[in-house]
Structure formats: structure tokens, C-alpha cells
Amino acid sequence: NDRIQLFASNGQYKTTFKLNEGIKRPSGICSNRDGTQFYVSCYLGGCVRAFNVGY
């Protein structure tokens, strides 16, 4: 469904991001320490995409 849902460490829902069509078969996700950016690895594209979190 090309979406990523973000939750706080206590399980509280934060936001949903729609992935652009440039990401094919996402295979990993992580965030920076302060939670302002997250990164998605794209297996078929051989790249990592960065997204800014603005909630």
C-alpha cells in the first residue's frame, strides 16, 4: 500500500507517510536519534531514501 506509519516508543500513533513511486521493494527502515528524519532502503533500486518528519 506504499505507506509507512510512524509510532512513538510508547506505541502512540504519530503520522503516516506515503512513499513515492521511486521506492520499489522497501527492505529496511531506520530513523535518526531525534526522530526528525527516517530512511528507507530500496532493494530493487539499490538506494536509500531520506524523509523529513514534520508532525
TrEMBL record:
<protein>
    <submittedName>
        <fullName>Uncharacterized protein</fullName>
    </submittedName>
</protein>
<dbReference type="InterPro" id="IPR011042">
    <property type="entry name" value="6-blade_b-propeller_TolB-like"/>
</dbReference>
